[in-house]
TrEMBL record:
Domain PAC: residue ranges: 201-252
NCBIfam families on file: GGDEF, sensory_box
Taxonomic superkingdom: Bacteria
CDD domains to which the protein is assigned, alphabetical: EAL, PAS
Name assigned to this protein: EAL domain-containing protein
A Pfam family per the record: EAL
Domain GGDEF, chain residue ranges per copy: 280-407
SMART domains, per the entry: EAL (SM00052), GGDEF (SM00267), PAS (SM00091)
Stretches that traverse the bilayer: none
Amino acid sequence: MSELQELLADNLVFNHIPFPIIIMDENGQTVWCSRHAERVFQIESDSVKGQINPYMNPEKAALYKCSWEKMINSKDPIRLEDVEVRLGNGTLTYTTVVTKVFKSEKEKFILTIFEMDEAQQADSPARELESLRDGLDESFMMLYFDEEFLITYANPHFLKLSRWTPKRILGKPIWQMFGDTEEDHQLIEELMETLKKGEVWNGEAKKVKKDGDFYWVDLTAIPMILTGAETYYIFLEKDITEAKETQRHLEQIAFIDSVTGLENRHRLEQVVNEFIEERKHFSFVFFDIDHFYTLRDVSNSDTEKELLIEFTKRLRMYFSDSLITRTGLHEFALVTPLSHWFIEGFLAYLQQHPIYIQGTAIPLTVSGAVTRYPEDQQTFVHLMKASNATIKKIKERGGSAISALTADDHERLNRKALIERRLIHALDKKNLEVLYQPQINLKTGDVEGVEALVRWQDTEAGIVSPDELIPIAEENGMIHEIGKFVIETVCRQLKDWGSRDIPMNVSINSSIREFRDKDMARLFMEHLTINGCDANRLTIEITEKFALEAEAEHSIVRQMKQLHQKGISFSLDDFGTGYASFRYMLLLPISSLKIDKDIIQSITQQEKMQKLINGMIQFGKSLDLQVVAEGVETKEQLELLRVMDCDSIQGYITGHPMTANELETWMKNA
């Protein structure tokens, strides 16, 4: 078989391109034609080999204002318009032909693609593609994504298995269908980067159903990059959950990690539960290798494996009398009777016994959590949760530390679990409350607007402030329900005030997670329309972290601009505590900024702080932004801000958060 024949055999994809294709040698003689060409021109590939191509050859080339020499020597594709061709039924038609030169065994060949119009073919490309899609639709779970990886189509197979409804899934971003672990994020990023490069991605993926259950699919993701059309992506999925469950069951039986030889998470859970039943005291130690993905990126799969094996050796040497398990890609857990001071010494041991890969020392450190049974936690699940909370805190501080669960940590974890449990009940019964804190114009003394603040007083959890509630809600996904409750409540209140001729502007807080929902802008406008509210009365407050992340996500910026065009304003909250960026201040439709209360609290303490705050005020004004100071509590703070020409203030000195009725009474008496 010649090199060209091998090339054609290996590229059967030519037969799936929905246009006729003919390959010629440099003399214009036919070498090969696709099945589409055979069907359209009613020819047979074997019988026309060696014949001069009647549609495109050295003599014909000149007719199309292009010499054969130019065709055969061009490095770039050549496009020829209005080429006359005769179809199999004898009729003449005109079409566009694209030619591209390639070499095989040092010989030149010309690939010609005839872009036949759909109406010219009984078996048109569109019909073939439609049949292909119908076949795929019946055989696979199928999803379409637009260029920004927002879902535009989900077929019945997918909806049935995942239990999502079109209303809940269409327009949502890709991450909604996957888990929220670091590994999940890595997979999504790898998948998206592959597709953006125009390459097909194939592999196994763990996905999330509407009710939170996981399922596994064999996923093939295909980029559709069409000339003159928007790029989109097709996901074809086969359910392999049963096979994965069988595999997991076999792994549970084996209890052994194939890479390190350590026992796995299933064995860990079994041993911990046995110790708990026997009421044995022990320390549950959780290690997470710092910057593992960075270490992995500078190595290959073989060195990654060697790194894990060498790290395992050091664990075995140092914790010789302990149960050591591998619980994740870069996570290890131990059950040990050893004391805390000895466990902390493992960091020094790693420094004294560095890991060398191909003669290079790998700068490996770990973040470690030590949780005691029964003093700290009493179940395997809570031991794992406590460990994850401690690890997260250590990593936020830079990693390379081993910490025990403190009494404060223990109290916070119990408090967090209580709030999560009670919040579900509160949202169901609508037990949350919205309070309003006034913002006062420093020049006129008038109430310029109010900020809507969600408050919750629970029979078990007590008073839960926004600072405590919002981070928990963002973490467990309930922030969407809270946001919806606040929008509904505020719009109803604006309607009530409007009916009684009480002019009031209200600002509400929103998170990046809420705006990742493509329907967020529609939700705002729906409630404003239902209640007959003026959009100019509403301001959405976002943090600097929100603004920084929104800058990189076109769908969020688009929604913000849509709302801004309708009249809704945006305010940059907690200014001075995050990552201020001139870029996002220009890119996003921000009309005001609020200087953070912690900064305002320091205004009377240092002269430098006064200069800083004055600079922030003047900076805002230079961009024609309204400047609001939060957390103003004393007359001295107020007077300094007045001298600095701050526009408005918000804080206890002028008014605490109040119910709507209390606010109206306060305004009458002010």
